[in-house]
Amino acid sequence: AQTVTQSQPEMSVQEAETVTLSCTYDTSESNYYLFWYKQPPSRQMILVIRQEAYKQQNATENRFSVNFQKAAKSFSLKISDSQLGDTAMYFCAYNNAGNMLTFGGGTRLMVKP
Amino acid sequence: EAGVAQSPRYKIIEKRQSVAFWCNPISGHATLYWYQQILGQGPKLLIQFQNNGVVDDSQLPKDRFSAERLKGVDSTLKIQPAKLEDSAVYLCASSIDTYRNTEAFFGQGTRLTVV
Q: Tell me, which fold does domain A3-112 have in CATH?
């Protein structure tokens, strides 16, 4: 079974600075997908960024980028120019075709003014 | 495009009572998920449907939880009888297809409190 681990329960960052959230996963599959979801206090999960394992290039979405290290099974999220609206729970998730979407335990990010 | 709709938003029941949650996925989405999210934890998959068939229900406590998606569209998750440890947010999500690794879209969830 696939597992996803987020080792940082809580993090904080000053507004406009950069923060990196860590995620590791375990799988025996060679082709799979990784996601970062954001969950603000409203509870609605929102996709931040996704990475396909067969692509070597790291995904980027505006201020959000990932560092995907396939051999190390590591998938970290970097948030640049942090904004107050980035305050939320962040979840790393994994799936491959036909299997369930598995989430990590989450990292609570607080952006301070 | 309408998102994933869930109701109710909040529910408080006493232990041993029964409760049902409803979910209407995004139109055209074949895959529907039910997740349980206990406070401070990541979501745990309870059941995954592809159209009206079950893909995975290995983590569904079948002695008290049941779910159906009879016409391959909306779905109902039921708990009977409820226990205190069932207090959680129940999230419904949908995606285009289980076998295409597309993004899952989530509803706002139902917060269940069992007292």
A: Immunoglobulin-like (2.60.40)
